[in-house]
Write a structure and sequence with these properties.
The relative contact order is 0.17. It contains three helices and six strands. The protein has a single domain, classed as Thrombin, subunit H. The N terminus is likely disordered. A six-stranded antiparallel beta barrel has the order 1-2-3-6-5-4. The longest helix is centred in the last third of the chain and has 11 residues. With 149 residues, it is α+β, with helices and mostly antiparallel strands. 19% of the residues lie in helices and 34% in strands.
Length: 149
């Protein structure tokens, strides 16, 4: 338990935000994702995401939050979120920065200080689920009809 507590205090905090980005595959430069959901000094969560494999190398470009500095970095896919676990409703990619230069890391860390960190235990991607047939019918003014009698 003591080691875990020491490790968690040294871990960079993640911050929820929504900023546009461009994430492309290194091998064919196809666009994989275009929105950052959360960010830390060591990585990010991006969505929506095209299918990629864990360990695949990507290139990301985004403007640092609350400043006018562009960050270009190489990242590796650390986790693929399929949206199947409880609390996950969308596909996303967890990306880890690889060889981020000290200036870019400093800019990210400094710009994130003004944003509140993600509360502990809320690591799941929070996206509203799609409405049910009954909700859609109610919104359109009609009634939901059963599929089978």
């Amino acid at each position: 338990m003591r080691y875990r507590r020491v490790f968690s205090c040294c871990r960079p905090s993640r911050h929820t935000l929504s900023i546009p980005c461009q994430v492309v595959r290194e091998r064919d430069f196809r666009l994989v994702a275009d929105q950052i959901s959360n960010l830390s000094a060591t990585g990010m969560l991006v969505t929506p995401a095209d299918p990629v494999l864990t360990g695949e190398r990507l290139i990301v470009s985004f403007r640092a939050p609350r400043c006018d500095v562009w960050i270009d970095a190489e990242v590796t896919v650390a986790r693929v979120v399929h949206g199947r676990r409880p609390g996950e409703y969308a596909r996303a990619l967890g990306l880890r920065f690889e060889g981020l230069d000290p200036w870019s890391r400093f800019v990210i860390t400094t710009s994130l200080r003004a944003l509140p960190p993600i509360p502990p235990g809320s690591t799941r991607l929070r996206v509203a689920p799609t409405p049910t047939v009954t909700e859609l019918a109610r919104l359109s003014g009609g009634e939901a009809q059963p599929l089978c009698n």
